[in-house]
Fold Claudin.
Amino acid sequence: MALIFRIAMQCVGLLLSFLGWISSIITTYLPHWKNLNLDLNEMENWTMGLWQTCVIQEEVGMQCKDFDSFLALPAELRVSRILMFLSNGLGFLGLLVSGFGLDCLRTGESQRDLKRRLLVLGGILSWVSGITALVPVSWVAHKTVQEFWDENVPDFVPRWEFGEALFLGWFAGLSLLLGGCLLNCAACSSHAPLASGHYAVAQMQTQCPYLEDGTADPQV
């Protein structure tokens, strides 16, 4: 029963880490980190991502323009690019490492301690990947709130608001964090059954000589 619960915890943790990693990749390239609605022209909406700015018009559709220079971007967008790339890389490594540490795989059954360490390492990588995904998303959201309530900007000037990519990024970061925690919990819980198993084997080995001789075990 404990083995089934541990395998289920490992699979759920790996699934959450995979969903978080996919969502993190989509968040990186989705041009909807910020939205801007114009009161003068309700048929035109502006969106901004880490790589480009887009305008959406009902007659023309979506037209996007890439940013000309990386150094000309605001600090939060420059750092967000780096951190999101780091999150995607760490998330992939976490999935790869923790996948080899699953108990449901037949490979490496004789090296259970190594598989447990792989699970711990994969959980830590997923956990760090979740943090590096939450930091840029939360930073851009914080700057958006600051600019929205800036009293120095006149009221008639349109303000940027939260885009769909921010919510997807929060989901990605939390999924990676939760998945990494489940993988680490499953790895830590896998040590106790092994210890009891070794104790049972040792006890059987001590009782075997008495069974072969046909004598009773003095401990009984």
